[in-house]
Amino acid sequence: MSETYSTEQPLDLLIAGGGMAGSLLAYVLLCQNPALKLAIVEQSSDKEPSKASFDSRSIALAHGSVELLKQWGLWQDLQQSGCAIEHIHISDRGHFGKTYLNAADHQLSALGQVIEVEAIGEVLWQKLKAFTAQGRLSWFYSDAINALNPTAELQHISLQSGAQLQSKLLVIAEGGLSPSRALAGFELKSDDYQQHALIANIGLAQSHQHKAFERFTPTGPLALLPLTRQRYSLVWTLTPEQAAHHLIQPEPEFLAALQQAAGHRAGVFKTVGQRVVYPLSLKRATEASRHRTVLLGNSLHNLHPIAGQGFNLAIRDIFSLSLLLQKHQADAGCYPLIKAYQQARLPDMQQVILYTDSLVRLFSNSSRLMALGRNTGLFALNLCPDLKQAVANQAMGLNSIRQLKALLS
Ligand SMILES: Cc1cc2nc3c(=O)[nH]c(=O)nc-3n(C[C@H](O)[C@H](O)[C@H](O)COP(=O)(O)OP(=O)(O)OC[C@H]3O[C@@H](n4cnc5c(N)ncnc54)[C@H](O)[C@@H]3O)c2cc1C
User: Fold this and answer.
1) N or C, which end of the chain is more exposed by having fewer CB within 10 Å?
2) Cα(313) to centroid(ligand 1), Å
3) Using CA positions, which residue lies closest to atom 51 of ligand 1?
């Protein structure tokens, strides 16, 4: 049971899930509006960043996301843990197609940043601890939503612990397996890629010079993202059987297999850190909001990690909600906010899903015809600056943020 929440007055917002998306939303909204009454329900029992969300992964943050984190006063504390991506090299193993994206071509010092999610968790945790101490944020740990009873003015929420809460808006940020999403009546579309991602940090014999590599191999795409302390963050897409094999392979054999798959352009791999495997699927809700309820982060869209778009999309979910809550401070769950959130999030989400899903399917196919098609595509990207600009814009997330500002401000 929470120490600070009093049931006398309804909350403005209840966030279900205190992971990367839920915690960041709480921080942004509490900075924006000192009068906001906010609580988080988190199923894990640790009174520290949820290990279920802030695990050993690293993620790529697009340039546009870094700009938002700066605006929200977080990047100042995060930047020492971030590593700039200055160049992206995209290639197809065993074929001629290659393309390069360079930050300098877009008058930028970096196309994005790579950061360990534990570092994000630590910084966010310190900020949220201060709000909790001031009595502005209540936590319900080791708890979860049991039942929802919406009325015209409020969501009435029963928790498994027996606590009864009322909130003007419920934000579901419970990740891809969210049980409350179905309780609230959202429908989900799901496709299993039959692929697993093996992730690990790879120590290098030499500097990575801030280059990211995206390589398409017969088992699926492989990404190496530059990380601090002369390391790469690896996302290696494999069949479930291959992933299980490489997970327990002795270090020298693992490094040799990875070197063969990635080639030598990315440098010589020296060490591998903890290896973790994630099954890959595409899950997306058919609606972003319903009566007094919105979906956020992976509860709304759970993507293949290869294009590094999932959390970037979640940051834009948060940006949209923050703009809308500035407009609708009196009633956080009012119909115009619910409607505008849906209108803002679905097109952005569908565009990113189309881009990511097409990349996965096109580059996971070993047929010679498909290989010719994608190599011609990579070749054409080099010849056509407009096309290349469109790919770079997607990677940097700039257009989407501009569009959201225009739509919601
Ligand atoms: C291998 C890999 C690499 C990735 N790389 C990138 C990248 O480079 N760039 C990028 O932008 N994105 C990337 N992503 C995606 C990114 O990690 C996700 O978008 C992000 O983790 C989503 O955060 P979330 O808070 O929505 O969900 P989660 O991280 O799943 O957090 C959900 C939280 O809700 C809690 N919870 C669950 N159920 C309940 C319940 N019933 N009640 C209360 N609490 C509950 C959990 O304990 C957890 O704290 C990657 C993902 C993977 C798997």
Assistant:
1) C
2) 12
3) 305
- Dist. CA 276–CA 246, nearest whole Å: 10
On whether the CB atoms of residues 55 and 276 are closer than 8 A, the answer is yes
Question: If you average pLDDT over every residue of the chain, what do you get?
Answer: 88
Q: Is 56 in the pocket of ligand 1 (CB under 6 A)?
A: no
**Residue whose CB lies within 8 A of the most ligand 1 atoms, among 23, 27, 43, 85, for a mutation test:** 43
Superfamily of domain 11-57+118-189+283-364: FAD/NAD(P)-binding domain (3.50.50.60)
CA dihedral 391, 397, 401, 404 (to 10 degrees): 70
Would you say residue 205 has pLDDT above 70? yes
How far is it, in rounded angstroms, from Cα 295 to Cα 261? 38
Closest to 310 in 3D by CA, of 262, 343, 355:
355
Rounded to the nearest whole angstrom, what is the distance from the C-alpha of residue 46 to the centroid of ligand 1? Answer: 17
Per the model's pLDDT, the better-predicted residue between 329 and 385 turns out to be 329
> Quick check: helix, strand or coil at residue 61?
strand
CA 19 to chain centre: 11
pLDDT in tens, 306-329: 778 899 999 999 999 999 999 999
Phi, psi for residue 134 in degrees, rounded to 5: -80, 0
Residue 369 Cα to ligand 1 middle (Å): 36
